[in-house]
Every structure is written in structure tokens, then in C-alpha cells.
Amino acid sequence: MTDFRLVYCSENRVPLADQGLRSAMDDILAKSRRNNALVGVSGALMFSAGYFGQILEGRQGALEATFERIQQDARHGEVCVLDFGPVSKRAFENWSMAYVGDHSQAFDGWIGSSSFDGGIFTANALFEKLRSMVASAAHAA
Ligand SMILES: Cc1cc2nc3c(=O)[nH]c(=O)nc-3n(C[C@H](O)[C@H](O)[C@H](O)COP(=O)(O)O)c2cc1C
Known about the structure:
The chain is an alpha+beta fold. Helices cover 43% and strands 28% of the residues. The model is unreliable at 115-120 (pLDDT under 50).
């Protein structure tokens, strides 16, 4: 059975005031880790004040069901699929949802400088960014 990978970006619609973003992220991560582990989905998530970027990996059915649910979530909008296709090996297989929130300023700066609407911001760029962030976070831990 083949694994698939989905890469998407979306606009962050979480109210930023008070502890809004913090508690929303806690909730998203807790649910992601529980649900994804149950259906064998792995991945990584990053966010900034403006955007989410997420990679999901798993069997096609589990991936599509998970993404259907995610797309309905009012905490983000303008969900834009950057890539979807089969992969020979997962990149985040040990993570039901890796999280690189500590680097959110880096994400902001990177998106701000990478012409998000101009097509320079590619699936591969997001994938490599997340992979290196997760690797360096794991290295630092
Ligand atoms: C940016 C973002 C990423 C999310 N990623 C996942 C995910 O990987 N897996 C998941 O189950 N839910 C994810 N969610 C949450 C879902 O939209 C939904 O709230 C959750 O799956 C509902 O879980 P429950 O039915 O167990 O309450 C994400 C939400 C947002 C806004």
C-alpha cells in the first residue's frame, strides 16, 4: 500500500488577542496527535500570525478523511493545496504531528519575503523548510 503526502497552506483566522492563539494551537495539536495516531497519519505543522503550513502523510483514505475535517475548521481559511501525491517514504513518520511553533517568527519572515502570491512559495520550499526545522528542533531537544 502506498503512502501519500499532502502539502497545504492556509490563512490563520484564530483571534490573536489574549491567549487565543496559544490555546487554539494547544487544541489543534492535541486533537491532531490523538486523531492522526489512530489512523496512521503523520506530519508537521507550522504557523505564524498570518498563515498555517502543514504536511500530512498517510494512506490515501486516512489522509483524505483527515484533510476533509481540517478544511471545515473555521480557525483557518483560503486553504490552498500545494501538492498531493504518492511518496516512496514518509518524511515525518515518527511524528503524529510535529510542531515548530517556536520558529513562528522565522516563518513570518520567510513567508513575508517569499512572495506567497507570486508562485515562488512552492510545496517543495515548504516541505524542505519544515523538514529542516523539525530536524533542528529534534537535534536541540
Ligand atoms: C491548521 C490546522 C491543522 C489541523 N491539523 C489536524 C490534523 O492533522 N489532524 C486532525 O485530526 N485535526 C487537525 N486539525 C483540527 C481539525 O480541524 C478538527 O478540529 C479536529 O480534527 C476535530 O477533532 P475531534 O473530532 O476529535 O474533536 C487541524 C486544524 C487546523 C486549523
